[in-house]
Amino acid sequence: MIRFIPLMLLLAACNTPSQAFRDAPVRTVTVDGSTFDVRIKDLYAEALRTNAQYAPRMGPIGGRAAIAMEQVSGCRVHDISGDQAVIQARLDCGSGLPPKKRGAKYFECRKVEGFPDRASNEPDYILNCDPVPLQF
Predict the structure, then answer these.
(1) In terms of DSSP bridges, do strands 44-49 and 34-41 run parallel, antiparallel, or are they unpaired?
(2) Any bridge partners for residue 46, and if so which?
(3) What does the DSSP 8-state code read for residue 25?
(4) Which of 16, 20, 68, 81 could form a disulfide with 29 if both were Cys (CB 3.0 to 4.6 A apart)?
(5) How many CA atoms lie within 13 A of 119 on its CB side?
(6) CA angle in degrees (0–180, nearest 5) for 107-48-95
(7) CB distance 35 to 71 below 8 Å
């Protein structure tokens, strides 16, 4: 039983919303074979894809998520961001768009210099990374 605890913890995190949407009510919607947990907060929406589906990039998943968010909110999706698993959007409900939110930062890195690692003799690199704020 104890060996299954890590697996249960991993699976429990599959449909956990981002911090901004934690207290928002959830509604499950399926669009063209993609199932999403959709949460709406003010003029923002978040759709978490919860089904197992081959999706190496956002591609058609983004359009399906937008349809799901429009069905739940009753508003038009103006723009989306995120990846194939968690999609966030700004909603246009007729009263104008909400401002773009600044989210968590990610880092943009560049290789500065390479040198061989003593143990493996494989090249190792020094990276120069700058934080870049995400917006949606």
Answers:
(1) antiparallel
(2) 39, 88
(3) -
(4) 68
(5) 1
(6) 90
(7) no
> What is the rounded CA–CA span in Å between residue 105 and residue 133?
4
The span from the CA of 58 to the CA of 85, in Å, is 8
pLDDT in tens, the chain (136 residues): 555 555 444 444 456 888 888 889 999 999 999 999 999 999 999 999 999 888 777 888 899 999 999 999 999 998 888 888 899 999 999 887 777 765 545 566 777 766 666 676 666 666 667 666 555 4
pTM of the model: 0.64
CB atoms within 10 A of CB 37: 20
Q: How far is CA 95 from the centre of its chain?
A: 26
E strand spans, the chain: 26-31, 34-41, 44-49, 76-82, 86-92, 102-116, 123-135
Place of tokens 């591609």: 59
Residue with tokens 């989210």: 103
Where is 55: in which H helix or E strand?
none
Alpha carbons 76 and 67: distance in angstroms, whole number: 9
Q: Which residue has the tokens 């907060």?
A: 41
Residue 134: how many other CB atoms lie within 10 Å: 14
